[in-house]
Amino acid sequence: xxxxxxxxxxxxLGFMLMLVSFHAEDRKGSIDLYFHGNNKNDxxxxxxxxxxxxxxxxxxxxxxxxxxxxxxxxxxxFDDVFSSSQTxxxxxLDNYIQKNHIQGHVYYTNHAGHIYFNDLELGIYFIVQxxxxxxxxxxxxxxxxxxxxxxxxxQQTIYHLSIEPKSEWIxxxxxxxxxxxxxxxxxxxxxxxxxxxxxxxxxxxxxxVFILEYRVLKKES
Length: 221
Hints:
InterPro entries: Ig-like_fold. By secondary structure, the protein is of the alpha+beta class. 38% of the residues lie in helices and 32% in strands. It folds into 2 domains: 27-171, Immunoglobulins (Immunoglobulin-like); 176-221. The protein contains 3 helices and 15 strands. Strand 12 (151-152) and strand 13 form a beta hairpin. The longest helix has 44 residues, at 177-220. It starts with a helix and ends with a helix.
């Protein structure tokens, strides 16, 4: 009787584990991206109509992340995706994607600066700003980054994430008077060099003609 009870408990436990695994694979996640930044006056601006590209880098099978075949040559490791190495990994991915012309899905921030990536399969996603955002005399840019779905914070497993990419405002550098003066001086120096060459050739030719005339006169005398 006890042996039969043990077998029943093992069967029930196995069935429950199968249900949990199936539920994890079938579950979806989402990302709410909010893009904003501060200008030179430290004013917070909502950045609307900014394009972001999203790429699925790896899938999640309920236990581990499996890198997509398209990115296997990069030998990516996601054990420390949220450590300091994330930036290097993101830049590596960005260069690889541009070099190989890999197409992702493009989304634009709405009037409130949000993008909602809904119904996402579990895995690791790479998100990058597609174009710079021009504002007055500068531009807003953000660095590419990686996102895990689900994400664990040691207390709970999170499937629906809210993210605010760090933006940087860079002032466009106008051409200064010094740069203009330097360019003009370079042009003048180039012109002087050409004139010097012309004068040197002319002097050499005159000297050659003088020697030739001297020899002719000497023979005649």
